[in-house]
């Protein structure tokens, strides 16, 4: 797989609530790696809300969950402090390091994992580099993106353009809605 192909998600959904989890479960997905920032909470929020915790707790009855974040210990541990979810902080996505830690933590086989995140240059690219499936979602609040993410978004824009030219059909089915939704 070339770089641009690795940046094409397997699926796109408008939020973590739109993902057909029971279907995934039936297809052999046993483990979910969730990005934190702008996937579960925006950068403006410090902690998961009660309803977000309830939603993830419900999911954890059918799946092993790991929160996989590029943010530091303080932000991640504070965001999850009222929960028992496993997490990897400073996960340096798109490098494989954090994904491998999450695989170890969840004792999962790569085939059984679905990564869920809002960034092409970290979540999607990193998942595919590690051989994992990935669902891209619409950012919770794009305006709250941090500087490094704003930088990644510029690269993302360029990559999206390339993909639309090289793989127009895949672009149309998996990325066009993502572009239009932001
Ligand atoms: Mg994110």
Note the topology.
Blueprint (H helix, E strand, L loop, with lengths): L2 H4 L4 E3 L7 H6 L4 E4 L15 H10 L4 E5 L4 H7 L6 E3 L8 H10 L6 E5 L2 H10 L3 E5 L9 H20 L1 H7 L1 H5 L2
Parallel strand pairs: 1-6, 2-3, 2-5, 3-4, 5-6
The chain binds magnesium ion (MG).
The site of magnesium ion has 7 residues, from loops.
Key words describing this protein structure:
182 residues; six-stranded parallel beta sheet; Rossmann fold; binds magnesium ion; 9 helices; alpha/beta
Describe the 3D structure:
By secondary structure, the chain is of the alpha/beta class. It has one domain: 3-Layer(aba) Sandwich (Rossmann fold). Helix content is 43%, strand content 14%. It contains nine helices and six strands. A six-stranded parallel β-sheet has the order 1-6-5-2-3-4, covered by helices on one side. Strand 2, helix 3 and strand 3 form a beta-alpha-beta unit. Helix 7 packs across helix 8. The chain starts with a helix and ends with a helix. The site of magnesium ion (MG) has 7 residues, from loops.
The total of beta strands comes to 6
Radius of gyration based on Cα positions: 15 Å
CATH evolutionary superfamily:
HAD superfamily/HAD-like
- Can you tell me the CATH topology? Rossmann fold
| Major sheet strand order | 1-6-5-2-3-4
Q: What is the total number of structural domains?
A: 1
Per CATH, the class reads Alpha Beta
Oligomeric grouping of the chains: single chain
Question: What is this entry, summarized?
Answer:
With 182 residues, the chain is an alpha/beta fold.
């Amino acid at each position: 797989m070339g770089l641009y192909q690795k940046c094409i998600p397997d699926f796109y959904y408008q939020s973590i609530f739109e993902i057909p989890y029971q279907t995934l479960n039936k297809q052999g997905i046993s483990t979910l790696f969730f990005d934190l920032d702008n996937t579960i909470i925006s950068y403006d929020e410090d902690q998961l809300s009660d309803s977000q915790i309830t939603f993830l707790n419900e999911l954890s009855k059918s799946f092993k969950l790991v929160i996989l974040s590029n943010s530091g210990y303080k932000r991640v541990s504070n965001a999850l402090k009222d929960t028992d979810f496993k997490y990897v902080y400073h996960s340096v996505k798109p490098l494989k390091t954090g994904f491998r830690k999450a695989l170890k933590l969840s004792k999962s086989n790569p085939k059984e994992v679905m990564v869920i995140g809002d960034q092409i240059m970290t979540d999607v690219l990193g998942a595919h580099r590690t051989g994992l499936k990935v669902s891209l979602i619409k950012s919770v609040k794009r305006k709250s993106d941090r500087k490094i993410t704003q930088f990644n978004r510029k690269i993302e824009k360029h990559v999206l353009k390339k993909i639309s030219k090289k793989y127009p059909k895949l672009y149309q089915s998996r990325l066009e809605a993502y572009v239009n939704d932001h």
